[in-house]
Amino acid sequence: MTSLLETPVPAAVDHLTLRRGAARVLLTNWTGSSTVPSRGLYPHQWSWDSAFIAIGLRHLSARRAQRELESLLGAQWADGRVPHIVFSPSVPLDAYFPSPDFWRSSTAGAPAGAPAGTETSGIVQPPVHALAAWLVHRADPETSRERGFLPRVYERLVAWHDYLTGPRDLGGGGLAAMVHPWEPGMDNSPCWDGPLGRVEPAAPGSYRRADLDHGQAAERPTDLDYGRYVRLAADYRDSGYADVPGGHAFAVEDPCVNALLIVSEHALARIAAGTGADPAPHEARAARLTAALVERLWSPADGMFLCRDLVGGELIPERSVAGLVPLIVPGLPRDVVDALLGTVAGPGFRLGEVPMAPSYDIDGHAFDPSRYWRGPAWFNTNWLLERGLRGYGQDGTADALRAAMLDAAGASSFAEYVDPFTAQARGTRAFGWTAALTLDLLAASRTADDGTTDTSMGVRT
Q1: Which of 22, 101, 270, 382 minimizes the number of CB atoms within 10 Å of its CB?
Q2: Whole-number Å distance between alpha carbons of 40 and 233
Q3: Which intervals hold domain Mannosylglycerate hydrolase MGH1-like glycoside hydrolase (predicted)?
Q4: Dist CA 350 CA 5 (whole Å)
Q5: Active site residue 187
Q6: Which of 162, 187, 302, 399 is catalytic?
Q7: Of 284, 293, 235, which is closest to residue 259 (Cα–Cα)?
Q8: Is residue 87 part of a domain?
Q9: Is residue 454 part of a domain?
Q10: Rounded to two decimals, what is the model's pTM?
């Protein structure tokens, strides 16, 4: 294990230089209607990336941030799902795998209402979108009202949440389930090792990994895991992307996904009020989801939330940052909050000792400080933790985390993720949500003392 003293955290970059650099990344990655996460490794539009990117873009151009979300929601399926990738027809098929000809959304997805004229993937990602829409609206309410932004996205966001709480309640306990490791966004988390062990991988010669053209193998998923990802995606495609309880080899309830759904449901209540609709149903659903989150995924022995394997029926005994993200949920029981705060600073995650929270328990058997979601620190999860800490009155810890994130973003050239001990760059560089959330943190630094914060949803408005 790397010593905390081996490599110092990189020196801070001044905020003006940092803001210019972050803005440059977003301008470079803008395609005219949306923002790619990176020009090489991720050349299309990704779902939760676009939500985080919109949160940062609002500080440069509220109109462009609105367009980011509108373009994503324009590819929504009739059943309400928001696909995790919207493919650009101008990008060659061999630039990314799985490509549109693998997913076949317009044909295989037709029974579920996939759009006929836009190629997408058939799986989803965490629902950050209503939260992003509300924050984007608040950045420039006048432009938002002139463009009819909230009314235009409201019904689509309602349908998205209805899908997650309806067809995707595969466990019957009120929480949204994910049917592929790519869906929770933490693709290669050790949380999925057990459930993936049931999956026979696709034959190695049946596909080509384009990700290794742009990333080091030691920082990416193994070939064995990737083969299992391909098998699950192909099986889901061949089922017509049907969501059938008991019909999936991989089905999990993830605490990060459901925490984001809760916070976005609270945001949807505010959007409803802003459009003249009734916010009460959204607040009621947020309350039901919060109760279900605690009932089904809270582990008192671990002091954090765990994922639930719906095939085996048990909580998965792996401690990832997904189990800490529910700090963003308002109104958690006090004993749960106190335990979470203790776990964040405790031996497994060591926030305050390490610059940013790792994606997996440092003392866990599968910890790797460099490999995708198996230990590195990510900017989006730490952005969420910063908001959650602040929402529960931990301003000092939140301030320190914000400063560490800004330092790491600048020194790493806005890396996709970083070593949790040293904050050294890992993954691709000039990454979209790293740059976007840097802009948001910088804006928060400027307004921290002027009374313009609202932490009722764990985020600033």
Answers
A1: 101
A2: 23
A3: 42-434
A4: 15
A5: yes
A6: 187
A7: 293
A8: yes
A9: no
A10: 0.95
